[in-house]
Design a protein that fits this description.
There is one protein chain. 24% of the residues lie in helices and 20% in strands. By secondary structure, the protein is an alpha+beta fold. It has a domain of 229 residues: Dipeptide-binding Protein, Domain 3 (Dipeptide-binding Protein, domain 3, Roll). Strand 2 and strand 3 form a beta hairpin.
């Protein structure tokens, strides 16, 4: 049976979820039937038994969940930490460190959305035995907006005022202005222990960051950099599980090698990047394996650094988009399983805009645009204008063989229109470190989950204040600046009824599709693989990583 990450408390009802949405603006994604759920299996063991080996194609390297990080790091965060409440596979909020999900209905949120009261669990302990209290929640929310801390997200948290610890199990605050996405922001905000930072002058380099202490189902045990991380069962966990003694998170950057190790049984679960589509036909015939197609919220894009002089002009960005034959890439390299898109919003979302201009592959139109904009071919055939050559590097993860083939395909069609693209790929830890987060790239092929859980707010990615390279907090790594998008984000974030919010996000998608800070390619349909008998695994389009409910995974016997 499917189990939620958090404990002995059923998900809030759909009606109550809608009540919360009215206060917070959250609306769950509609999950297609193919997503599925686990069938009924034997009950989980009474005590933790055995181990599970989860393979990730990228290496988790950031263990403080509030420092700049990417999806794979959350593969560790979900096992070690807990938020106040989480989001399940149906888009419902479920209690975690909070006793209940605050709502207008239960008095946790005022009708205007400004005043919040959160009641916390009593008796929860940190992994080192220290009691968890409201002081830890206060510390976490203050840490995220500390100007000296390299916070991964300030949007939403920067609206919090008058944080008050009422008791060890109750905390209140006031929002400076109504901010509809805040429930979803909190659902992806892991609480960290105040005492772990006591006496630490620079929290960016605290010892905690390399030996994290949480309240979660698993404790930090060991790390061999470049190879694996070992997590051990937390016998004092307050929620369901854990049901296995150990979790080994194995780093396998070469996706062909990952599939080979899945076939051989060295890997129990294929994570992040999963099984590549070229192996799907073989994978689904493997004995003793469960293999399924799962629609994901990740959108693949060809991302541009908008501060580079080559990309300042809209005509150039439009020409590059014309010159990408994305349908052929999907058909030839991804075996037709991925879905072309013009948006960063998953097509299952209530907020998806289906009426955006459809991409057309046309080298003639690309050349015409560049000709009209004054980009003339030089002696070597590469276009130039005002001393700037239409030449740049493109980077992605080394070892992602399908992306590498896609790069070569794009490189050739760009050459056909007089554009020089040099491929310069990097190991994942380097690629998605400062090179990506601090916008040191020219262009990147990357897959991203843009939404905040089920909420449509994308301030973290598109607000002009969310570029880390410019001193902000967020992942606006393309350094995109749009006064109109900033205005739409503010307006959409202040409206609480999903039907009324929708117009702002439809318009935002329209503006971004026009401006093209990135060239949207496709929305992922992923090939997930695990050993038969591994139970509790439940895809969740509202979270960015498979291990969102790893506390309930176990081996059925």
């Amino acid at each position: 049976m499917t189990q939620d990450k958090y404990p002995n408390i059923a998900s809030i009802s759909r009606r109550r979820a809608l009540t919360l949405m009215a206060a917070t603006g959250a609306a769950g994604l509609v999950i297609p039937g193919m997503l599925g759920r686990d069938k009924a299996f034997a009950a989980p063991p009474e005590k933790p038994t055995g181990q599970i080996v989860v393979a990730f194609s990228q290496e988790p390297t950031v263990f403080n969940p509030h420092l700049l990080h990417i999806e794979v790091d959350e593969g560790i965060h979900f096992a070690i930490f807990d938020p106040l409440f989480g989001v399940d596979q149906d888009g419902n909020f479920t209690p975690a460190l909070a006793v209940e999900v605050p709502s207008v209905e239960n008095g946790g949120i005022s009708a205007d959305g400004l005043n919040w009261k959160v009641k916390l669990r009593d008796g929860v302990k940190w992994h080192d035995g220290t009691p968890f209290t409201a002081e830890d929640v206060k510390f976490t929310l203050e840490l995220l907006v500390d100007k000296d801390f390299r916070s991964w997200r300030r949007a939403g948290h920067d609206q919090v005022r008058d944080l008050t610890v009422v008791s060890p199990t109750e905390i209140t605050w006031r929002m400076e202005a109504p901010y509809a996405p805040y429930a979803s922001v909190l659902a992806s905000t892991f609480i960290v222990p105040k005492h772990a930072f006591d006496g630490v002058a620079d929290k960016n380099v605290a010892p905690f960051n390399n030996a994290p202490i949480g309240t979660g189902a698993f404790k930090w045990a060991d790390r061999v950099a470049g190879d694996h991380i070992e997590l051990a069962a937390n016998a004092d966990y307050f929620g369901d599980g854990p049901y296995v003694e150990r979790v080994i998170v194995k780093y396998i950057p070469d996706l062909n090698v990952m599939f080979t190790q899945f076939k051989s049984g060295d890997v129990d679960v294929t994570g992040l990047q999963w099984i590549t589509p070229d192996h799907y036909e073989e994978a689904k015939t493997l004995e003793g394996k469960e293999v399924s197609l799962v629609p994901g919220s990740t959108v693949e894009s060809f991302t541009l650094n908008m501060e580079r002089p080559q990309f300042k002009e809209l005509a150039v960005r439009q020409a590059l988009y014309y010159a990408i034959d994305k349908q052929s890439i999907i058909d030839a390299l991804y075996y037709g399983i991925n879905v072309p898109t013009e948006s960063y919003v998953p097509q299952q979302s209530f907020y998806y805009n289906p009426d955006l201009p459809k991409h057309e592959f046309s080298l003639d139109k690309a050349k015409q645009l560049l000709d009209e904009a004054g980009w003339k071919p030089g002696a070597d055939g590469i276009r130039e204008k005002d001393g700037v050559r239409l030449s740049f590097t493109n980077s992605t993860t080394s070892g992602h063989h399908i992306r590498e083939q896609a790069q070569q395909f794009i490189q050739q069609t760009f050459k056909d229109i007089g554009v020089e693209m040099t491929i310069s790929n990097l190991p994942p830890a380097v690629m998605w470190g400062d090179y990506w987060m601090l916008s040191k790239f020219d262009t990147v092929v990357v897959g991203l989950d843009f939404l905040t859980g089920p909420d449509p707010d994308t301030s973290d990615y598109f607000a002009s204040t969310s570029s880390s390279a410019k001193g902000g907090a967020g992942q606006n790594n393309w350094l995109y600046v749009s006064e109109e998008v900033d205005k739409l984000l503010k307006e959409g974030g202040s409206v609480f009824v999903p039907e009324e919010r929708k117009k702002f996000y439809l318009k935002q998608q329209e503006v971004i599709r026009h401006d093209l800070p990135f060239l949207p390619l496709f929305q992922y349909v992923t090939v997930r693989g695990r050993k038969k008998g591994m139970t509790g695994f439940t895809p969740n389009v509202n979270n960015r990583i498979d291990t969102w409910n790893i506390n309930t995974w176990y081996w059925a016997t």
